[in-house]
Amino acid sequence: MTESGSASSPNIVVLAGGLSSRMKKNIDPSLSAPLRSEASAKSKSMIGVGSHSRPFLDYLLWNIREAGYRDVVIVVRERGSAVRRYYEEEKHAGEFLPLRFSYVVQPIPPNRSKPLGTADALGHALAATDRWRGQKFTVCNSDNLYSVPSLKLLLHDMHPNAMIDYDRNGLRFSADRIAQFSVIQKDPEGYLTNIIEKPTQAQVKMASDHLGRIGVSMNIFRFSFDEILPYLSAVPLHPVRNEKELPLAVKLMVEQKPKSVYTIPLSEHVIDLTTQSDIPEVQKYLRNAYPHSFSSPQKIR
């Protein structure tokens, strides 16, 4: 099968190397002491918000498996051994067969206190995953619970590169929070032309289509290994955050190669774990979506 197909490329990268700064800064006194302690010490994806204190990442991996992926690369940070210890040393990876796990450490460069950003994280993942050359892969954050349908849409899309185009009206966050999300601009054929972070009201209006629909990026993409790779290193540092960020690498690619990223429209909410105040809502959602046991959850839509 050619690279534009999907059946031979059930690959996914999960970015779990962030420092969770906002989670640690925004203390929620309503949480139990154990949860506050976890939120202050662990990466977001490993906080025990699920049944029997299962980490958030368990639920994302369940959806990844149900969507049909098989080869999973998890990017972790230096001194961030909790993910690998949980899945390998404590043998929880066996609960997700037939998923195959591998891990890549994103280093912290000299003279920096934190990693170099999500584009850098993905670059390290691909450098360690040469077996994916000539194939496609999905990449997503570890602090969003992307649904099985969204993951399937990307896995089976036939374009070389694609992203989920979330309907802004389908997200059930506060208006203030939604206003901070990046909006996307597309051409009439549905190909990405721009990603605008922290958009102004004027930019939001410009991003709306002829029906008034506004598309939002929740940082889940499908790439050709060979097409995205050069842009991960070429992308400049963000002028404010001083990091190499994946959305900026995608913007660079579509600027230099128009019609290289297709946008897949989808209207649904995305469970997000950014601050401690998100934890109660995440716990409620997981209880309702997985009412029986983790081994046999209802399909998440």
Provide a concise account of the structure shown.
It is built from 11 helices and 12 strands. The strands form 2 sheets. Strands 1, 2, 3, 4, 6, 7, 8, 9, 10 and 11 form a 10-stranded mixed sheet that branches.
Plain-language structure description:
This protein is α/β, with parallel strands linked by helices and 301 residues long. Helices cover 32% and strands 19% of the residues. The protein has helices spanning 21-25, 33-41, 56-67, 82-89, 118-127, 148-156, 175-178, 201-207, 225-234, 246-256, 279-289, and strands spanning 11-15, 71-77, 100-106, 136-141, 144-145, 162-167, 183-186, 192-196, 215-216, 220-224, 262-266, 271-272. The strands form 2 sheets. Strands 1, 2, 3, 4, 6, 7, 8, 9, 10 and 11 form a 10-stranded mixed β-sheet that branches. Strand 2, helix 4 (82-89) and strand 3 form a beta-alpha-beta unit. Helix 3 (56-67) packs across helix 6.
Overall strand count: 12
User: What is the helix fraction of residues, given as a range?
Assistant: 25-40%
Classification by helices and strands: alpha/beta
- Termini separation (Å)? 30 Å
**What is the H/E order?**
EHHHEHEHEEHEHEEHEEHHEEH
Report the principal-axis shape: globular
**Number of DSSP helical runs:** 11
Low-pLDDT runs of 5+ residues are 1-6, 296-301
Largest sheet: 10 strands, mixed
| Average pLDDT metric | 90
Fraction of residues in β-strands: 15-25%
| C-alpha Rg (nearest Å) | 18 Å
Sum up the structure in keywords.
301 residues, 19% strand, 12 strands, disordered C terminus, alpha/beta, two-stranded antiparallel ribbon, ten-stranded mixed beta sheet, globular, single chain, disordered N terminus
